[in-house]
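On clarity, I found the account of how folds are encoded harder to follow than it need be. What matters is that the chain and its backbone geometry are given together, residue for residue. For the editor and my fellow referees, an illustration may be useful. For illustration, here is how one protein appears when written out as sequence plus structure tokens:

___
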Amino acid sequence: MEKTEKERFKFGLVGRSISYSFSRGYFGEKFKNLKLTGHSYENFDLDTIEEFSELLTNTSHLKGLNVTIPYKEDVIPYLDAIDESAKEIGAVNTIKITNKVLKGYNTDTYGFQMSLQPFLKSYHKKALILGTGGASKAVAYVLKKLQIEFKFVSRSGKNKGLTYDNLNTDIIKAHTLIINCSPVGTYPDIDKKPKIPYSGISKKHLLYDLIYNPEKTAFLRAGEKHGAETCNGLRMLELQAEKAWEIWNEEPY
């Protein structure tokens, strides 16, 4: 059946403290360019994941959601089904809603892999993943797929990883791919950066920051000072958003 302009198709982003949201602006522009007047996208800023059920009850015409920090893992128990790769990763950033049935997906993997691969060189054999949240799980999934060895780095050393205190210049030199999956350095705290020994960074290093606001974080600037190549998270966000849009439109609602 052909959709009319009066029919509402509502999408949104679930997270906490997300006034800076990339997604709302991106999809708003997309709907405008495609002349999809019956479509809208809004932020659903939740103090706790327990508010998710209330969101579903009180929001009509909801067809799809993106999920960001800190709920990519916490949202899983609220889903009716989960894509196999998202299940393996253990994190969801996209939800498709069909007849009130919620299915979770992870499009971060696609966005990260497609944005990372143009920068990879033959000597990028070992990586450090800074942070252990939902996004880091998608990054680890991709690195495993690309056969790049990796270690997690966090304050606690979870996931059999290293702590920031464990790091030294030798470890940094040995891991020429360093990916920041932590929120450290996000606007407005733009002068902050992960506490790693930047003196171990060389021209062979690639520093990738999932943060896109600011465009060049203190982490990336510190890497550039030592000759490293750098990449921020904007292209990853664009790619994962397009993959989410594809998923939402795979089948009629």
About this structure: The longest helix spans residues 234-248. The chain is about 30% helix and 20% strand. The radius of gyration is 19 Å.
